[in-house]
Amino acid sequence: MTKPDKPVARALKVWIALLLLLGITVGCSYIPLGAGNTLVNALAALAKAGLVIAFFMHLREAAPVIRLVAIFGAVTLSLLFLLSGLDFITRAAGDAPWQATPPSLYMEPATG
Fold it and tell me: Is the whole-model pTM more than 0.70?
């Protein structure tokens, strides 16, 4: 039989883990990794979100239906980010019609 974890000790461990992940995020900003910076920061943000969701929002001890709703919300949000990113990537790089220079309102006098 395992002994129950004390809430203060567990919160302190999670807080230290969050601070370490924050240090990774800040430290990564000083190291030129190119596209790797984005990957490292995204993974650190995902880990921080997971810690907050699991421990501070008490989803570890929640009913299965509550976990299912949380997972459904995360999947829906991820899908919206994915579709928005795909829309941004596949758009043409030209100006929108309302950004183009309008044609001259005055006609040149006809010579002849």
Answer: no
